[in-house]
Write a structure and sequence with these properties.
By secondary structure, this protein is of the alpha/beta class. The protein is built from ten helices and nine strands.
């Protein structure tokens, strides 16, 4: 299953966010922009700060029944604190969403009671509705799956991952991927500056080139590899540059090593959370 357009309505009932850092806050802002009623949302953080206007902000668990939807928007090393915080909660949420990197479904189920648990791994562009959110669940009802998709839809593209063993690799590719793309953009700009362009101009050109190319690739009916060959005339300047990138598959090898390093770290965090 995959999707991109916003789903047609959020699950009814309250939503509690445990944590509201950069990623959790970005997701919440997108949901509110998509029509989620702020009066149904409670943010629980140690500082009591960071919640958008109209959203209830607390520093402790309210003396209320469990919400319909509970999202864990913390760092994975804070899982013990989250478990302690939620221990007195009355009842269980219908849907538990977790964006704790590396913390697998079994570890979540062992620590937190919920009718359905969905792992979600968003990446940074969710802040502008152009993100990628990977989803995984075990035995969830159709209603829980629809609810998870309703939250994922306003964030951009989403994909259900069939095999949880692949989740660390997906996280490395899509979750960590924006950082690698930003580094590539910076390198492209620095390479232009090395050829004599003003640094600020090279940076603008690099970013605009990446933006246009990404949009073109997303809209194309062929792979990026085919697109690259289409813009590279035999004996032309693009082909000469591609020959450098393609030599001994050096770029593929570098990115494979990069993703493997991130995947290993995800696995380490998962082991620490068990």
């Amino acid at each position: 299953m995959s999707g991109g357009a916003p789903a047609t309505g959020f699950p009814t009932g309250p939503l509690w966010l445990i944590g509201c850092g950069n990623m959790g806050g970005a997701m919440l802002h997108r949901w509110l922009k998509a029509g989620l009623d702020p009066a149904t949302v409670t943010v629980i953080t140690r500082s009591g700060k960071g919640a958008p206007d109209g959203v209830r902000s607390l520093t402790a668990l309210p003396d209320e029944d469990a919400p319909a939807t509970l999202m864990l928007a913390l760092k994975p090393q804070q899982i013990d604190a989250a478990q302690s915080l939620l221990a007195p909660m009355r009842g269980a949420p219908k849907l538990l969403l977790s964006i704790l990197a590396g913390v697998d479904h079994a570890a979540l189920a062992q620590r937190f009671a919920a009718e359905a648990i969905v792992r979600a791994m968003p990446n940074l562009p969710v802040a502008i509705g152009k993100g990628v959110t990977s989803l995984y669940t075990v035995g969830a009802s159709d209603a829980a799956i629809t609810g998870a998709e309703a939250f994922a839809g306003p964030l951009g593209h989403y994909e259900w991952i069939a095999n949880e063993a692949h989740f660390d690799a997906v996280t490395a590719l899509a979750g960590c991927g924006p950082g690698f793309v930003f580094r590539f953009a910076d390198a492209l700009a620095k390479a232009g500056a090395a050829l004599g362009l003003p640094a600020d101009q090279a940076a603008r050109l690099a970013i605009a080139t990446l933006e246009g190319s990404a949009i073109m690739a997303a809209d194309a009916d062929v792979s990026p590899a085919v697109l690259a060959d289409r813009v590279a005339s035999p004996g032309g300047s693009t082909r000469e540059g591609l020959n450098v990138l393609d030599r001994d598959d050096a770029l593929v090898a570098l990115l494979t090593e990069t993703l493997a390093a991130s995947e290993r770290r995800n696995a380490e965090m998962a082991a620490a959370a068990r």
